[in-house]
Amino acid sequence: MVINLALQIGEVTETVTVTGETPQLDTTGGKVSSLVSEKQVKELPLNGRNYAALVTTIPGVSPGEGGNFAVRGTGLDSHVDMSVNGNQSNGNLWTVDGVNNMDVGSNATLLVFPSIDSIQEFRVERNSFSAQFGQAQGAVINLITKGGGNQYHGTAFEFLRNDALNSTDFFLNSARQPKQKLRYNNFGFNFNGPILKDRIFFFWSEEWRREGRGTVLSAKVPNPQERVGNFSGALTAGRPRDPFLTGGCDPKGTVNGNFGACFPNDTIPANRLSPAGLAIMKIFPNPNNPGSTNWISSALEPVATRQDSIRGDVIINSKMNLMVRFINETWDRKNASGNFWGDTPFPTLSSDWNQPSKSFAVKLSTTLTSSTVNEFQFSRSGNDIFVATNQAGQALNDEIASKFPTVFPRVKGTGLPTVGWGTDGYPTLWHQAPWDNHQDLWVIKDDLSKVWGSHSFKAGGLFSHNIKNELTTGASGLSTVQSANGRTGNLISELLLKDLPLTQYTELDRQEKVLGRWHDFEFYGTDTWKFSPRLTVTMGMRWSRYSPTYSDNDRVSNYVLSRYDGKNPLSGLVTADKASAAGLPRSLVKPYNAGYQPRVGIAWDLFGDGKTALRLGAGRFMSRSQVIEDLLRMAGNPPWTTTVDTGWQGDTLRLADCPTCRSLDTINPGLKNAVAGVGSNTAFSAVNPDFRPPESWQWNATISREVLKDTVVEASYIGNQGTHIWRRGGSYNDVTPSARLQIAQAVRANAGNVGDLQNANRIYKGLGPVTGSESTGNSTYHAMQIWVNQRFSNRLAFQVAYTWSHAISDVPLQSYTSAVTDPFNYSLDRGDSDLDRRQMFVANGVYVLPSFKDKGAFVNHILGDWQVNAIVSLVGGVPINVTSGANTAGLAGAGSQRPNLVSGVPIYLKTSNPLQYLNPAAFSLPGVGQFGTLGRGAIRGPGLANVDFSVNKNWKVRERFGIQFRAEMFNVFNHVNLTGVDGNLSLQQVASDSNFGKPTNGQFGYLTGNRGPREIQFGLKLSF
């Protein structure tokens, strides 16, 4: 029985000896898992031929919003953030032939995407799975690659798309802009067969993608005249004034005379223009759209990938099999801007991203006795990420670098500083390049299976040595310019005016690199006991020790609040090289050694006919937290980098009046000595030394019934309790509760001493802000799930997944999100989880139409062997985080404070503008010293309705050769699925302001994105 189990999950001997599929009805354990077969993988219309998209057809899988789940993406576009049964979206383990396939920095992108035609099957273990599987509190998603057999087979294919066949993006159509360009070619081949008959087999696959896709981007931009200092025409912001003159600025707009007069002819004189400012202005394109968002475009972003995959299977003898598999994949994205990991939304200055990835495995399967099998596997997987300035913007970046001096020696390749604009609505300008990252995972594991009477034992262990080297910041984090319009009334003129001191400027001296290292140790044992012919009991235990990540160069430090002496801010800082003196390991976080994970399952064949089963399962499941994020935070603590900071200079007019100031063009000598030392305002990052791996306790009750031949219906109650989920972004040194009312009143009165009051009333006196990271989050999930699965027979295969569920948490469950409303009361954040979708219905099917063989060969060639395939998705919306943008509670900052919900006022709008989704009048400013009444997760975003459809025509040529033509339509009905609600009200909190209590964010409640229009793809496959 153990050997059969190994065959079911695709071991080496499967491609040699197995001729049937595994049983549909599970009568052997309490797990809940779903199998996606080779037929579905090959035939269903997969956008981008991306196997990861099929996971969303499984019950209980809630995909992330917007770019957090990329249906067609590969490489760094492959965001696979999806919550499985209410767990963290990055709490899943994706594997290929049992090899870790994740970039563990985020746990949200994959390393390699095996070609669709090289996939045998993949299985999603989604609740109460065996102790054999670890490193996941969510799901284990294992893909099995194909091996060769005793006959030669092969496939060659090409899929293509062209924008001429597609619909126009909703936003481009609304702005009457041209359709986004698309040129897409996906082509490749595979060839497999014997090297030595009955002994040695191979499977070789090559695949390429060439995609040039216009990415829809939009922003507010200054017009060409404004960019060169001419404000005499139409304006995109306020009319500027000369800060060095006094008097009025009329007639275009009444301006308080104390602020200064207009420039001559509303134009900054040429001799007063900043060369660096003019260079930075070249980043902006010309406006092309009416309204405040006056630029929209679909910049072409080429993506090229190549994948080389080779697998060999060797039957060494009757008792020993060897599998060796290697995948090499390159992913290269040019001109990545705006909606990617970095850079402005403008193609004038963008980055090129390159990720080469590798996955290697060697597995030796040995039959020791007739009842004992051992499997030993060694694997290595990893990637590199390189970010460089796109060639088209290199000259501009170099020009900015030549005109914008830096305090410290310039890091090679950097140019544009990050420019924040304040309130005038222009997008932040920033540029990620240069940046790099390296990951290497070395894993050894062994599994021993033994059948003894009615017992099937399995035991094994795993050891891994892992590397993650990453720069703490890209170029965008080195130099930061914060601008405001207080001196001229116009942000553009503030930067264009030569030698006007920058409002605030900070600069780091270096890109610090973290050399992350960690080890995993895991052991497990499980017993499947056939208690009676109809009852099977599974009991298991897994022990995991996920050693905390340390930096190989020891250039990290952690702030431990218990060590702060009340006087010296540095007293709480513990560096890695002196960790032992503080009772901490080199990682500055204590290891967690109590990783015992019991698993139990019961399967009862109710009537003894193998057609109806009741299964019960429960267990504890743990995953490793993101291995590098907290280490990056600790590398940002003193003393590893040096920072200069001008402080806020929003009222300073002349460089001569501020020895430590700078303009875009000139650095005062004093700034080079204005090193931001450690003082009462210094910010620190603190990772709780008792940080633990996140975990969930899972349970299920499932009843399965084979209702027809090859058709199984499964109904499950599934639940889990998540604990020790990471909570990041909390304010450990916030204002004491007793002082909150005083500070809230000062904020309401717009008092000038608010910052001083906040610092004076922090919990730890004499210490600045401390941002915390801990593992105290909790979640719950309860669901009814229906799974109908018909294996391919009688020309039909289909699956139906329905989920009715409720996920609650007090922390965000989606990757790289953090939100703490009140650092003293985490229960304020308990509400519907950010990936809670109450109802989800997803169905897929493959149907081969009847043949016309009885009508003759010619008629059959035309009318026979047609096939239709579809994926239908009807998915509810996720909660929207609506914030007030006001500090009514009197904390150290507005943070994630929410507004009041106004009773009786409609929350959702139905107007002629489909983008206006939320009603600002439904929310109001909370009272002084109060948090809002709106609960977390109480507002819902729009859902998803999508149908992907394909028609295939198959021809047989001389029996051995086949041709398949495919016409695939993604979003076949061109349904507009809008996403991305702007949830920040930015309520005016100053009582004396005429807009007191009103939203100041004109874009609040508007939908900002969509999931794309209909795209059509044609494909041709040749096989033998």
Short structural summary:
This protein has 1024 residues and is mainly β. 8% of the residues lie in helices and 40% in strands.
* Poorly predicted runs of 5 or more residues: 1-20, 251-259
Distance between the termini: 35 Å
Structural class per helix/strand content? mainly beta
Strand content: 35-45%
Mean pLDDT: 91
Count of separate DSSP helical elements: 12
What's the β-strand tally?
44
Helix content: under 10%
Q: Could you tell me the radius of gyration in angstroms?
A: 31 Å
Sheet with the most strands?
Answer: 22 strands, antiparallel, barrel
Give the CA-based shape.
globular
Walkthrough of the structure:
By secondary structure, the chain is mainly β. Helices cover 8% and strands 40% of the residues. The chain is built from twelve helices and 44 strands. It has a 22-stranded antiparallel barrel. A five-stranded mixed β-sheet has the order 1-6-7-4-5. Strands 15-18-19-27 form a four-stranded mixed β-sheet, with no helix packed on it. Helix 6 (275-281) runs antiparallel to helix 7 (391-403). The longest helix has 13 residues, at 391-403. It is globular, with a radius of gyration of 31 Å. 47% of the residues are buried. Residues 1-20 and 251-259 have low confidence and may be disordered.
